[in-house]
Design a protein that fits this description.
Layout lengths: L3 H9 L4 H8 L3 H8 L6 E2 L1 H9 L3 H7 L7 E2 L8 H19 L1
Parallel strand pairs: 1-2
Length: about 100
C-alpha cells in the first residue's frame, strides 16, 4: 500500500524517492519498502529522513502511526572517515559558492 501523503511530502520538499535515498544513504529498495509500509522503520533511518526533509519526529510519526515503536540498532552508526571527508568537502564547496 502506497503512502500517498508521505510521497507528497517528499515531493513538496524537492525530492523524489531516488534522490532522498541518495541523500540519506538508505538503499532505494529499502526506502520504498519502508514508505509503502512493507517493513518497519529502523533507527537511524527515521532520523536521517527527518533531517533531510526538515521535519520533526512527531511530524514523521503522523505518516507512519503503526511505526511508533521504531526498532533501534544496538549501537548508533559512527560515520566513516570517507563520509566525514565527503561532508567536509560538501560544506567547503557550499561555503565557496556563498563567497562567489
Amino acid at each position: 500500500m502506497s503512502n500517498i501523503a508521505f510521497t507528497a511530502l517528499i515531493k513538496s520538499k524537492g525530492y523524489n524517492q531516488k534522490r532522498l535515498a541518495e541523500e540519506t544513504g538508505i538503499p532505494p529498495g529499502v526506502l520504498s519498502l519502508r514508505i509503502n509500509g512493507v517493513n518497519d522503520w529502523r533507527w537511524p533511518e527515521d532520523s536521517l529522513i527527518c533531517a533531510a526533509l526538515g521535519i520533526t519526529y512527531d511530524e514523521f510519526a503522523t505518516y507512519f502511526p503503526t511505526s511508533s515503536t521504531i526498532k533501534k540498532s544496538s549501537k548508533p552508526k559512527e560515520p566513516t572517515k570517507r563520509e566525514l571527508a565527503v561532508d567536509a568537502i560538501k560544506a567547503f564547496l557550499e561555503y565557496l559558492e556563498q563567497e562567489v
